[in-house]
Design goal:
By secondary structure, this protein is mostly beta strands. The chain has a single domain, classed as Sandwich (Immunoglobulin-like). A five-stranded mixed β-sheet has the order 2-1-4-8-6, with no helix packed on it. A five-stranded mixed β-sheet has the order 3-10-9-5-7. A hairpin with a 2-residue loop joins strand 1 and strand 2. The longest helix is centred in the C-terminal third of the chain and has 5 residues. The protein starts with about 25 loop residues before the first strand and ends in a 9-residue tail after the last strand. It binds copper (II) ion (CU).
């Protein structure tokens, strides 16, 4: 009986989507400590403020910055996945699936800056962008946003 097994590390499960289209907007998000709590662009989460709006069927680039010293932040997005374009100014390594693969969490390490690429496709609705460290998201490292058919131009929501 032939051995048809393959080494999963050497398989190409799918082609990666194009990341060359120009973004409609580039937004920057600073994840930082603020008065003993955790903030995004200097603000704490509230349940009744939609901080920004994405236009469906467009491309956006987001820059994540960790300005919080000794903490890391696993930044999690809902509804749509992204691909990493830059990590501290360099391209993701082609040999590292964890860097070049499609993701919905980016582990933002100490003093790291990363640029990620989104193509918002099917979904409309309200959702959070947040740090997935439970203590951080509870105190209040989260921003509510909306995907709709209009969008906005807030570069530092
Ligand atoms: Cu965090």
């Amino acid at each position: 009986m032939p051995d048809n097994s393959l080494n999963p590390a050497l398989m190409n499960f799918y082609g990666f989507p194009n990341t060359n289209d120009a973004p409609r907007i580039t937004r920057t998000f600073r994840f930082e400590r603020n008065n003993g709590q955790w903030a995004v662009n200097g603000k704490f989460a509230t349940c009744d403020e939609i901080r920004f709006a994405i236009k469906r069927n467009t491309v956006e680039k987001w820059v994540f910055q960790n300005n919080s010293g000794g903490w890391q932040h696993p930044i999690h997005m809902h509804f749509e996945e992204f691909q990493t374009l830059l990590i501290n100014g360099r391209a993701p390594r082609s040999t590292e699936l964890v860097e070049r693969g499609r993701k919905d969490v980016f582990r933002l390490e100490h003093n790291m800056q990363t640029t990620v690429y989104f193509r918002f496709r099917d979904f409309v609705g309200k959702l959070p962008l947040h740090c997935h460290n439970v203590v951080h998201e509870d105190h209040a490292m989260m921003a509510l946003l909306e995907i709709n058919d209009v969008g906005d131009n807030k570069t530092n929501p």
